[in-house]
Amino acid sequence: MPSHPAVVLDLSANGVGIIHALARRGIEVYAFDTSGPYSKGKSRLASCAVCPSPLTQQKALLSFLKGVARKFEKKPVLYAGADDYVVFISTYREELSEYYLFLYPDHSMIVDLLDKKKTYDLAMKYCIPTAKTFFVENDDQLDEAISELEFPCILKPVYGHEFRKHINKKAIKIQDANQLREVFPLYSKYGELIIQELIPGDNQSFYKVATFFDDDMNLLALFTLQKNHQFPVEFGTGAHIVSKRIPELVELGVPLLKELKLKGVNMIEYKKDPRDGQYKLIEINPRFWLTHSLTGPSGVDFAYTYYLYLTGKNPAPQLEQIDGVQWIYLVRYFLTFLEKRRNDEMTWRDFLKGFKGKKVFALLALDDPMPFIRSTSSHLWNAWKRKRKE
After folding, report:
1. Cβ pair 339, 233 in contact under 8 A
2. Are 363 and 18 in contact (CB under 8 A)?
3. pLDDT at 158 (0 to 100)
4. Residue among 363, 299, 291, 359 nearest 326 (CA)
5. In whole angstroms, how far apart are CA 39 and each of 2, 14, 34, 43, 52?
6. Taking every annotated instance into account, which residue ranges of this chain make up the domain ATP-grasp (predicted)?
7. Do both 146 and 237 map to the same domain?
8. What contacts 21, CB < 8 A, 6 or more positions away?
9. Total structural domains within the chain
């Protein structure tokens, strides 16, 4: 009898990590993303194709996914690697659940977690330390925020996944009040913004706690990690990560996620503030995160455990991890090194040291070379274009 296939929405490094975790266990994988950079360099470990946009073609995407599912004898397990797809699946969960297997928290919670204002409200409600934050809707509120701010500070979108469709930045560093007054109206036309204090500390101050709770809020998988490097250096995503159990973060994060009833796969990111030693909330993501492909080599395979649970295999909880395994997004690690080397923050010896010990690469794979080639060429091309503008 055929097993359940898997359908992955996302062909970035996040989605490719899911493909690799499942296909290498013999699971039939189908992967889709919108047309654009991911239409090139498709994974050879999955059947890949272009799909309608979850932002602008929701009804077409719904029809498309129904058509895909009808081809199989058993319901596919549905995975999402990006916020746009998570919101889409959650919005149409009733219809999609007739065709697919997936597990998400309540839709209202997903919407709240993607809204920086609502996430801040949750932090206040549960007394979670966070950066000092200002919500600005007019000039008077901007002046008030400036009077209380310490510079430099950061400007962030309330809805990051929508903002990055226009401006590909997680945050903008602001040096002084004059710059803030100048750029605030320029960026605000792309979406609502918040102003936040800049928590000091380098890339290694960032930590994540990830959980997988089942329908009854039983913990089936647990993982913690520490960043070593990110790209871009100041406000970026993982470039070099290490598996590391941080008991105090487990004590902070797991009860919170359980209290919020965040069933399915979720991740909290914290930054440790050197001024007071507190772990301060950065964000909560109700989905698979970029560096989840580190979990399998570290003994806690989130993607496969999710598959086993949803297909009725009753997987045993995976709550112990192997520490010291490194996850390397090679081209981003190299570009980060170049930037840090220019600032005398990293040497060639430091860079090469990052390859010692047990490691897993985000995309580099002999059995699936094209995603790595695609991503590397794209990153290097964009870096060259930026350098030319300088």
Report:
1. yes
2. no
3. 76
4. 359
5. 29, 15, 7, 10, 12
6. 120-311
7. no
8. 293, 296, 301, 303, 304
9. 3
What distance in Å separates the CA atoms of residue 84 and residue 15, rounded to the nearest whole number? 13
- Residue 30 is encoded by which pair of tokens? 């189908």
Whole-number pLDDT of residue 142: 86
Query: Is 352 exposed, middle or buried, given 0-12, 13-18 or 19+ CB atoms closer than 10 A?
Result: exposed
Return d(Cα 275, Cα 129) in angstroms, integer: 13
Instruction: Split the chain (390 residues) into runs of 10 and give each run's mean pLDDT.
Output: 87 95 97 81 91 94 98 97 95 97 96 87 90 84 87 82 68 88 83 86 94 98 97 89 96 94 96 94 93 97 98 96 98 96 94 96 95 93 79
Burial of 343: CB neighbours in 10 Å, binned 0-12, 13-18, 19+: exposed
For the chain, the maximum distance between any two Cα atoms, rounded to a whole number of angstroms, is 67
Which CATH number covers residue 30? 3.40.50.20
Which pTM does this prediction carry?
0.91
Both 293 and 371 in one domain: the answer is yes
The reported pLDDT for the residue numbered 35 is 85
Residue 232 lies in a domain: yes
Residue 358 resides in a domain: yes
Asked which of 176, 197, 218 is the last residue of a domain, the reply is: 197
Query: What does the pLDDT read at residue 225?
Result: 98
Residue 348 token pair: 């060639």
Does residue 74 sit in the same domain as residue 141?
A: no
Residue corresponding to tokens 């036309």: 189
pLDDT score, position 108: 94
